[in-house]
Structures are given as structure tokens and as C-alpha cells.
Write a structure and sequence with these properties.
196 residues, alpha+beta, Glutaredoxin, 7-stranded mixed sheet, two-stranded antiparallel ribbon, 6 helices, globular
Amino acid sequence: MNIKYIITIFLVILLAQGILIINDDYTPHYTPLNATQSFFSENSEFISTKSDSFGNNDLKGAYTLIFFGYTNCPDYCPDTLMKIRSLFKKLEEQNVKKNIRMLFISVDTKDKVDKIKKYVEYFDDDFIGLETDKSNLAKLSKRVGVYYKKIQGDSSIDFYDHTGAIFVTNEDSKLVALYTPPIDVNKILEDVLKIF
């Protein structure tokens, strides 16, 4: 056997091991969650901006960034959705094809699917939004640990205090990670490129 061929194979093996070591040493920017259950409870279904029925099966096959907010939110919600749109744009600019999507879940049960659709698609046509009712929202928020509370005020518009984190489900619809504020798009991008 040619000695150059053996040396080349040896160098390729060393390089591959080096890459694996580098990846093993990578520390993600999210908080890992050891969830064993699916994001939604087994029989729950929601109306989405893409279909009349949305549940765990619709989360399967891709990583999903999930954000809880509401369409009348004056600041944090639009800022977060702009950041996620920026993330998607950066992936497009780098010509990186990643199996990742965005899901917006409203904590305001007055938000109906038509309004949510206009809201999320303002940021990106591929973003998905979910309409909720009081019962399903209460169950889901308890299941995944989301806080939301209507703020009392004199305005005719309802305002909410709510969790500002971005939840991440894996390709099996399991909740696996959490990004907490302040949201840094470049850190999420790095995780997407190295892990997702």
C-alpha cells in the first residue's frame, strides 16, 4: 500500500477527530431542557395561520422556535419577531438550509387567527401563528412553564405581562431548550449552525 495514501487517511482521521472534539467542546447559548414529553398535550389541537388543526405532529420534522406574545404588544413582541426574522435572513444570506421554523402563540384569547396571520406574516410569510382559547392556553402554559397576566388599565386595548423567552422543540416535538432575554440573534445563529 502506498505510504502517501496511508498518511493521507491517517491525517483525515485525525482531522475528523479534531472536529468532533471541537464540537464536543461547544457550549450552546441556550438553557438545555430535559423534556421527555411532547410540547403539546396529546389530544390538544389549535387553529393555526396555516391550518385548522395544529398539534404535535405539526412540530415534528423540524426544530421550532416558539414565542408566546400577543398582537397588541407595543414593544417586546415585535422586537423579538424582528430578531427571529433577522436570524432567518442571516441563514438565507449564508445560503444555509436548516430545518427550522418559527411559531408564535398568542396569550390573548381575543386574538383570532385572521389577526394573528396578518401580524406574524408582516414579519415573515413563513411564520406560523396559533389562536388559543382560555382552557387550552391555561393547560399549555402550565405544561411548558409560561407566565402571562392581563395588565389592568383604562385602555380599551388589553395589555399582557408575559414570558419573554424563546422555547425550542426538536424534530420529535420535544421541548429541548430555552433562550432567555436579552435575545441575541448572533448567539442563536451560532447554535443553529453548530447544533440544529
